[in-house]
Amino acid sequence: MLELDAITAGYDPRTPVFRGASLTVGPGEAVGLLGPSGCGKSTLARVAALLHRPDAGRVVVDGRQVRGWRHRAPRELRTAIGVVFQQPRLSADPRLRLRDLIAEPLRATGRRDEAETRTPELAATVGLTDDLLGRRPHEVSDGQLQRACLARALSLRPRWLVCDEMTAMLDASTTAALVAAVETYRREHGAGLLAVGHDRVLLERWCDRTVQWADCAPGGV
Ligand code: ADP
Ligand code: ADP
User: Fold this and answer.
1) 99 falls within a domain
2) InterPro entries recorded for this chain (predicted)?
3) 61 lies in a domain?
4) Which residue owns the Cα nearest ligand 2 atom 22?
5) Is the CB of 75 under 6 A from ligand 2?
6) Is residue 201 included in any domain, yes or no?
7) Which pLDDT tens digit goes with each residue over 149-181?
């Protein structure tokens, strides 16, 4: 389970963006979180991905409560969760070629050989052709870059995926391809998904269930 329990979070502890938000994703389950712009979905997604420390509440990953993330959450928990953001250009180092962008988590966790062998395979699972792997982010489209960001997020074989408006900048066919790649990965690895967005039609089609922000964070601020 990926459990968010009574989370209060924001960017200034005196004025949190929201209080008491709770949401649980079961093993292998896909949950869509829907809500209006600015309510705090991305902030909660970053808490779920262990990238943003909440001011109060508990995050529990596979039965382990996340502790000691004064600076960063423990690596073995962070790497259990793959994350894709709305704007690939903000999360992709502009100097890296797509192949290195995809290989980075494997290399950084000391698996250099695996990085070499698995990068082409990861690229293929997201529909990236080999000729694109030598390009840098500014030399590819948003959709191609987002495919690389998804491949990177899948590289450490996470048990959980957090997709924050992953397809909001993309056209319909690229959206369908990325959703299909996520679903293929989830089927093969039994991974759970938290998909955050504002597109009800997409999330209802994609996910096992959807949650409205007002039901997730009934306390508001
Ligand atoms: P949503 O994803 O639902 O649009 P966000 O979580 O992005 O909402 O934002 C919630 C609130 O937090 C907004 O008022 C936004 O301006 C604010 N916010 C988001 N990121 C930051 C940040 N890095 N620093 C300060 N405020 C932020
Ligand atoms: P360090 O602790 O050495 O600063 P990290 O443990 O944060 O590095 O991350 C190691 C590598 O794994 C980095 O390249 C980072 O981009 C990648 N990484 C970390 N968390 C995730 C994640 N949830 N999904 C995909 N890649 C990740």
Assistant:
1) no
2) AAA+_ATPase, ABC_transp_ATP-bind, ABC_transporter-like_ATP-bd, P-loop_NTPase
3) yes
4) 82
5) yes
6) yes
7) 999 999 999 999 999 999 999 999 999 999 999
